[in-house]
Amino acid sequence: MRLVALALIVTCASPLSAQVTFSSTDSYVMGAGGWTCAKVLETFHGTDESLKGQLAGWVLGVWTRATTEREKGFTDIVENVGGLKIYEATLNECRQAPPSTYLYRVAYKMIENTNPQK
Questions:
Q1: Who has greater pLDDT, 37 or 28?
Q2: Domain annotation covers residue 68
Q3: Angstrom distance (rounded) from CA 105 to CA 43
Q4: For a disulfide at 33, which of 42, 51, 69, 104, Cβ 3.0-4.6 Å?
Q5: 8 part of a folded domain
Q6: Does the residue 76 lie in any domain?
Q7: Does residue 1 sit within a domain?
Q8: Which residue has the higher pLDDT, 98 or 1?
Q9: How confident is the model over 37-95, as pLDDT tens digits?
Q10: Phi, psi of 70 (to 5 degrees)
Q11: What total of structural domains would you count in the chain?
Q12: Where are the alpha helices (DSSP H) in 1-118?
């Protein structure tokens, strides 16, 4: 049974080839976070609904995780803005970044720059 589960995980993960290892930070970014902004925008404008879902899920997931680590004021901002606008803002930041910029860097910078005191 374990071999079947492992095979299923490996099979399901195969299309998620955007896994990037960053030895200088000892990090491993899986899924859309490891895509470049060029790939993000290509996916957004493309026709593969599965990849579009992966992109939206990753963006919303990373922002959701940030709400568990930041102060209440940050969480209030995220709740008030809402998922759709956060997703759109993240894509817009990718449009403005150099095409080789990784999505995770864009999202983390946005999260870092979201100041509840403003």
A1: 37
A2: yes
A3: 18
A4: 104
A5: no
A6: yes
A7: no
A8: 98
A9: 999 999 999 999 999 999 999 999 999 999 998 889 999 999 999 999 999 999 999 99
A10: -105, 175
A11: 1
A12: 2-13, 37-45, 49-69, 72-81, 83-96, 103-113
